[in-house]
Write a structure and sequence with these properties.
3 domains, single chain, about 45% helix, 14 strands, six-stranded antiparallel β-barrel, 3 helices, Elongation Factor Tu (Ef-tu), domain 3, about 350 residues, four-stranded antiparallel β-sheet, alpha+beta, OB fold (Dihydrolipoamide Acetyltransferase, E2P), Helix Hairpins
């Protein structure tokens, strides 16, 4: 009898254990888990846009800054001098342009004046020609002396020469106007060039102020008072406190049912016991190995099959009380619920 009771107890225990194992397996079948996951964010590297010595620093390590905050200044004296040079060059170009305008107006007046003299010379020439023809008729009849006729002939020649001179003066005046107009085009181009140079000097002067392009925490600061920095050299980094995500590196055999929009549970090693929520936003278009410096080439040599991992991007929801404390690089443990809604989000553009 005791043997039968023991057998019955053992059978019930096996049934219970088997049922629990089945329930656990079914529950886990809807969840895909990995601890190969890390918090990521778009860390912005700040570089100097102008060369010079650091004269002021307004931030310290790990300080929270807002977009547009002044981080540091570079000695602006050289850039102020260049701006003044550019302003002087623009003023000279503007003065040259005004001078050209005045000379052009004066030249137009000279053209009108020369045209009037030309009309006077033409009228005089026509008059002297008529007098010469009259004297030529009178000298034939002896009404006037040959001396008077010769004098009139000389006057007619002088009138003709004056007429030709007036024509040449008018032509020269018109060519001079064309020259001034061409000169004006050159001066305008120079003035535009000096204006551009002034705008460039203003931008260079603005670049002596190093501003924060985003809101975040200051890190990797190499700024020192008096240190000479070159344009393009890094001075610090700004780590964002918002728009963080988790990159979970799942095995390729785990990706079958992972889709954008599925709900995710995230545990961070830094905050044990605190459960973060998230959603799958996208899956990498390639395995992590393909983006490495030396992608694997399995076409030659001995082949050993290795399960590949594919990064899955998960948008992380950070509670307000932990803003600024969750930072890129933290280790995470991720569990994706593959039975949750998969249509909430689409693939990232």
């Amino acid at each position: 009898m005791n043997t039968k009771i023991k057998a019955l107890v053992i059978a019930l225990a096996l049934i219970t254990t088997t049922g629990a194992s089945v329930n656990t397996f079914m529950a886990n079948a809807d969840s895909i888990k990995t601890d190969n996951a890390y918090v990521h964010g778009e860390i912005t590297q700040i570089s100097a846009e102008a060369s010079g010595r650091i004269t002021e620093i307004f931030v310290t390590d790990n300080q929270l800054v807002q977009a547009g905050d002044l981080l540091a200044t570079i000695d602006p004296r050289d850039y102020l001098a260049r701006r003044e040079q550019a302003r002087a060059a623009q003023s000279m170009a503007a003065a040259s342009l005004e001078n050209n305008r005045s000379r052009t107006e004066l030249q137009r007046v000279k053209i009108d004046e020369t045209a009037a003299y030309l009309e006077v010379a033409r009228a005089t020439y026509e008059l002297e020609q008529r007098e010469l023809r009259r004297y030529s008729e009178l000298v034939k009849t002896g009404a006037v002396s040959k001396t008077l006729h010769d004098a009139q002939t000389n006057k007619a020649r002088i009138a003709g020469a004056n007429l030709e001179a007036a024509k040449l003066k008018l032509t020269a005046a018109k060519y001079q106007l064309i020259t001034l107009q061409t000169e004006r085009a050159q001066i305008i181009a120079q003035e535009q060039q000096t204006r551009a140079a002034l705008e460039l000097s203003e931008l260079e002067l603005q670049d002596t102020q190093i501003l924060a392009p985003i809101t975040g925490l200051v890190g990797n600061r190499s700024l020192q008072l008096g240190k000479f920095v070159k344009a393009g050299s890094g001075v610090l980094a700004i780590v964002p406190i918002d728009n963080l995500w988790v990159q979970a590196n799942y095995k390729e055999t785990q990706l079958t049912h992972i889709k954008p929009g599925q709900e995710v549970e995230v545990l961070l090693d830094m905050f044990p016991g605190t459960e973060f929520k998230g959603k799958v936003t996208s899956t990498s278009p390639s395995t992590g190995a393909q983006f490495s410096l030396l992608p694997p080439d399995n076409a030659t040599g001995n082949f050993v099959k290795v399960v590949q991992r594919v990064p899955v991007k998960i948008q992380l929801e950070i509670p307000a009380e932990l803003h600024g404390r969750v930072v890129p690089g933290l280790s995470a443990e991720v569990t994706i619920d593959t039975e949750s809604d998969s249509g909430a989000l689409g693939l990232e553009e």
